[in-house]
Amino acid sequence: MSALRPGFSQIAASLVGLAVFAAATLSSPAQDKKNIIVTETGITGIEGPAVDADGNLYFVSRNKMKDGKIRQLKKGAKKSEVYAPLTDGRLGNGIRFDKDGRMYVADFKGHNVLVFEKGQKKDNVYFTTNTLPPSATKFTQPNDLAIGNDGTIYASDPVFGSGTGRIWRITRAPSGKGSGEVMASNRKDGKMGVTNGLDVSPDGKTLYVGESTTGQIWAYRIDGNKLTAGEPLTPLATLSGGQLDGLRTDTSGQIYVTHNGGKKITVLTPQGATVREIPTLGSGPSNLTFGGPDGKTLFVTQTDGGFIESFTVDTPGREPCPQQKSATVCSAP
Q1: What does the alpha-carbon distance between residue 10 and residue 103 come to, in Å, rounded to a whole number?
Q2: Count of beta carbons in the 10 Å neighbourhood of residue 131
Q3: Domain 18-323, what fold?
Q4: Distance CA 154, CA 147 (A)
Q5: What is the residue extent of each domain of the chain?
Q6: Mean pLDDT for each consecutive 10-residue tract of the chain (333 residues)?
Q7: Cα 149 vs. chain centroid, distance in angstroms?
């Protein structure tokens, strides 16, 4: 997400229709071709795409940083529709689904993680810092979410003005509500950079975190509430071109990272080596998610022009796997 970082321009373009381009798998840079471009009239501030187990695509929309909505592009449809408005002035960003069909939304304005129970269109607060004691650490602006294989939610919480950020760990309490805490790290003084996109490795043992202003990708071993970077304390990779935004992993462990303002997606190995760069039509790829009948369609939201691109890739995303009740699409480790 880049909604509140300094210098971010508001989305103003309106595009119409659906254009279909020749599909191509992304086995080499020469074959990196756009598959589908979904463009919508009058929809701005799109971010946080996620696909449910039935193949429907969801994303957030924000009109001049107000009037937050969740929109749905039904499987096979050519135009999205409003799935649900966010209530009480809330504004969404990252979206994720768990294996039980619940949809979680990072509400950066309200300092909440929201939940829509499966089939419901009413946002409810799953976890909030608003009710914590005054001395407790609070959300600055929960940005993006990731869900581990055990259902644990990890939320990035950037502080753009200070160049720092945090990661929250949120688990389900017996009451059905979330219980959260800031994760400790072994970084110098425990400090991270501006945390943004994040995802879990296929085996559930590593959390990858992108830092917007440094261009760094960090790989942390997950140990309960602790995040441990390997020695020496260096990032997995340092990328250039725009600000790092969305991040997802596939079932082979590859890492996909969007460069907002950089007009590209970088694909990394689990060891941090660059596999390739995928050019995008829009200059502001903000976030991304996997979907499609085989988990190999990559949907990318574009802040520049307010549209969604999609690509066909070789390997299914890790994200759809926990939602599957069978191994028809892919199998989660």
Answers
A1: 26
A2: 7
A3: Neuraminidase (2.120.10)
A4: 6
A5: 18-323
A6: 39 25 31 54 83 93 84 88 93 94 95 94 95 92 94 95 94 94 92 96 96 94 95 93 95 96 96 94 91 90 84 89 55 43
A7: 16
